[in-house]
Design a protein that fits this description.
eight-stranded antiparallel β-sheet, mainly beta, Jelly Rolls, disordered N terminus, 2 helices, 6% helix, 239 residues
Length: 239
């Protein structure tokens, strides 16, 4: 990852009033799709859900969300409200057993507006002293969407070549990784992960106590499930 001047990881709790709607949500008329992915009583494995519907709060389990550096703005993006990341903003969610599972799915809508190695969703592994990650979903300068685990092992979900909205997801269970870009299955690999109690980071990474790989663009509908979603469920999220 990119390196820079060491910074202390400062968390500033962010909260604001709720308004608007989720522009990346599945069509409200598609009840069958919503039943399996909306985090209601039908699926309590949705452990974290950031919708940016006028607030930076977690809509799934009401976990506290803090800001690293600055907080992302919430802005309209044509069809609704999204989180706007300017290269200095990042979100942090404290670790919990439900966020350090051996079976999980991570998913996010993103629109990247600059080139470079930029992190969308990750969990450092001893980030204060190391460069490792328990997992990380990031993009490269060439538009490759990569999912990485400890030891810098990684697999590619796919590549994008424009500044449009895209959906990225990855699942992990039993040492097997499956990746998706825009609902289409990408590479699979045998990778393993481990945890050290680090916080989840949205929009940046932490390498040796230095905040790096800050995302530039917009993020929305950020999700962590403590189970593996099926390909059908991920395709529904990508609609």
């Amino acid at each position: 990852m990119v390196h820079g001047r060491p910074l202390l990881l400062t968390l500033l709790l962010a909260s604001c009033g709720r308004l608007g709607f989720d522009p990346r949500a599945v069509d409200a008329g598609d009840d069958s799709a919503l039943d399996v992915v909306d985090g209601s009583a039908a699926d309590l494995t949705l452990e974290l859900h950031l919708t940016f519907e006028g607030t930076l709060d977690d809509e799934a389990k009401r976990r506290p969300v803090g800001c690293v550096g600055s907080c992302p703005a919430i802005a309209s993006s044509g069809t609704g409200l999204v989180g706007t990341f300017d290269g200095s903003a990042c979100l942090s969610i404290a670790s919990a057993p439900e966020l350090e599972t051996q079976s999980f799915t991570v998913a996010v809508w993103f629109r990247a507006t600059s080139t470079g190695v930029e992190s969308m969703f990750g969990k450092p592994l001893n980030g204060v002293t190391s460069f490792n990650n328990s997992f990380e979903l990031y993009k490269t300068a060439a538009g490759n969407v990569i999912f990485a685990t400890p030891g810098f092992t990684s697999t590619e979900a796919g590549q994008f070549t424009d500044a449009s909205w895209h959906h990225a997801a990855a699942t992990y269970a039993g040492g097997q990784i499956a990746t998706y870009l825009d609902g289409v299955a990408g590479a699979m690999a045998s990778l393993s992960t481990s945890y050290a109690g680090d916080a989840l980071l949205i929009g940046c990474d932490l390498d040796q106590n230095t905040v790096v790989a800050q995302f530039v663009g917009e993020l929305d509908d950020v999700r962590y499930y403590s189970r593996v979603l099926s390909a059908v469920e991920i395709a529904a999220l990508a609609q």
